[in-house]
Amino acid sequence: MAGCGGGGGGESGDVIAAVNGAAHDAGGISADGLALPRGIHASFSADPRSTRTLTWFTDTGSDPGSMVEYGPVTPDMDVEAVQGAPFPARTDGTVDPVHGVDALTHRVTASGLDPALPVRYRVGAPGAWSSVRVLPAAPAAPDRFRFCHFGDSGVTAPAGWVRDGVMTVQPDFVIIAGDLSYADGDQPVWDEWFQQMQPLMATVPVMASPGNHENKDANGRGYLSRTTHFEPPGARGWYSFDYGRMHFVASTGGAFAADLRLPAEILWLEQDLARAALRRAAGEIDFIVFFNHFTIWTDQEGRSPNDPLLVVLLEQILLRYGVDLVVVGHDHIYQRSHKMAYGRPAENGYVQITQGAGGKSMRGFDPISEWSASAERRYSFCEYDVEPERVMLRTWAVDDTANERAGGLELIDELSIGLRNLVFRNRAAASPRGSAELLPDIEAIRRNTLARNRRDCPADGHTHR
C-alpha cells in the first residue's frame, strides 16, 4: 500500500512524514496579536497537476491576511530545510465570512507547481503563519494514480480511525461522498470536524459532494462557505474535473433542491457526461466516475430498495453515457454492486460503491438483493488504484467484526474493473438531450426531493462519540 509516487519514498518520504507529523494548527492569536489559521484543507479548483488550492479559517472579523507561501521539496532537503528554508513563491487569495460563526474563510490557489515534486507550504500572513506542511507531487504517469473514497464521517472516534487508515494508504487525493460534519445547523461542529480531519485534509487534496445533512445546514450555506472546488458557471455545489485519464463528475443529488437550481444541474450533468462519453470514445480518457452522496439502489435496513428520485432523474442519464463507477455514501454500510441497471445485474451497467461507513454510525441490512456483490457492516474506506485501462478497488476495514478499533487494516472486498470495449464506448457517445425530454415532471421531482431531504434518518444501531 505504498503511495503511487506522489507521497515520496525512502529518505524523502521519511522527511515529508516528519514534517507533516510535526504540524499542528488550532487557531488562536499569535504573538503579534493576529488570528492564526485552523481547519486547513487542500483541494483542486484548477489543473490538478500544476495547482493546489488551500482553504482555512481564522476566528476574527478582520482579515489578518490570506496568503500561501510555497515551493518544491527537492531530494536534497532535510526536515529543517523543508520547514525553514525561504519559500520561492507567495500568492494572495480571497476571504469571505463563514456561515453561522464569527470567523473568516480564506482561499488561495498555489499555481505553477512542478508536477514531479512534492510542494511544501504554509498559509496565513506575516506574524500569523501556519505550520509548514507538504502535499504530494502529481503522479508521474497520467494513467497511474490512487484515490480513496468514504462518506458519512462526523465527529466520532471511528471517523478518526478512517482518517488514519486513509493516511496509511497515501492516496493522491480523496473523495468524501457527503455528510461531512453532521453539524445540522450547529455551526461549531464544523470547526470540530475540520480540526479532526486536518491531519489528512491539509496533506492530501480532498474533493467532496454535499449530502442531506449539508442540506440541514441552511440549505448548504454552512458547507459551501467552508469548502472550495471547481465552479462551473451558475453551479452551487456541482462540478467535474479530469485526473489523469479519468473523468470525475460531482453532483449534489438534489441536496440543495430548495435553491431551485436542480433543473440547471441536471441539464449541466447531461451535457458534461455527453462530452465525457465522446472523449472516451475518442481515446482521450478511459473511465467516467460519478459521485454524489445518495445511493441509487440500497439494501440498508429501512431504506431499501432504492431512492426513487435518483432512479427517475439520474440513473437513466448515467446509463445513457456509460458511467463506469457510481461512488456514493448516505447509507451507513459498505455495499458494492455487480455491474447493474435498474435494480438488476447488467453487463453494460455501472458498478455502484456505497461507502457510508466513514465513521458516523453503523446500520444493518434488509435482505440482500441480486444486484449486490458485497455487503459489509464495517467502518471502512475504499482505495482505487488506477492503472492503464484498469481500476483495482480494495476496501479496507479499520475495525473488527464488533465494530471496535482494530490494530491495522483488513481487506474486506476487492474488484478489478477493465476498460469498456470499443463498441460500448462508441454507443455511449450519444447526443445530449434538452429540458423537454429530460425534465417533463421537474416540479413533482423537486417536491419529492425536498421531502426526502427533510426525512429523519433511521435509528443508529451502533455509534461512537
Shape: globular
CATH architecture of the largest domain: 4-Layer Sandwich
Rounded to an integer in angstroms, the radius of gyration calculated over CA atoms is 21 Å
Query: Which structural class do the helices and strands define?
Result: alpha+beta
Give the N-terminus to C-terminus distance in angstroms. 29 Å
Stretches where pLDDT falls below 50 for ≥5 residues? 2-6, 461-465
CATH topology of the largest domain: Purple Acid Phosphatase, chain A, domain 2
Given the structure, what is the number of helices? 11
Could you name the CATH homologous superfamily of the largest domain? Metallo-dependent phosphatases
Mind summarizing the main beta sheet? 7 strands, mixed
Query: For the residues shown, what is the average pLDDT?
Result: 93
Q: Order of strands in the sheet with the most strands?
A: 12-13-14-15-19-16-20
Estimated share of beta-strand residues? 25-35%
Q: What labels describe this entry?
A:
465 residues, seven-stranded mixed beta sheet, alpha+beta, Immunoglobulin-like, 23 strands, 11 helices, disordered N terminus, 2 domains, Purple Acid Phosphatase, chain A, domain 2, single chain, six-stranded mixed beta sheet
What does this structure look like?
With 465 residues, the chain is of the alpha+beta class. It folds into 2 domains: 10-135, Sandwich (Immunoglobulin-like), CATH 2.60.40; 145-438, Metallo-dependent phosphatases (Purple Acid Phosphatase, chain A, domain 2). It is 24% helix and 27% strand. It has 11 helices and 23 strands. It has helices spanning 10-22, 79-84, 157-169, 188-201, 212-215, 221-224, 262-281, 308-320, 422-428, 435-438, 442-454, and strands spanning 38-43, 52-58, 67-72, 89-92, 94-97, 104-110, 119-124, 133-135, 145-150, 173-177, 206-209, 239-243, 246-250, 287-291, 325-328, 334-337, 340-341, 344-345, 351-355, 372-376, 380-387, 390-399, 405-418. Strands 12-13-14-15-19-16-20 form a 7-stranded mixed β-sheet, covered by helices on one side. The chain has a 6-stranded mixed β-sheet with strand order 11-10-9-21-22-23. A 4-stranded antiparallel β-sheet has the order 1-2-6-5. Helix 7 (262-281) packs parallel to helix 8. The chain is globular and about 60 Å long. It starts with 9 loop residues before the first helix and ends in an 11-residue tail after the last helix. The model is unreliable at 2-6 and 461-465 (pLDDT under 50).
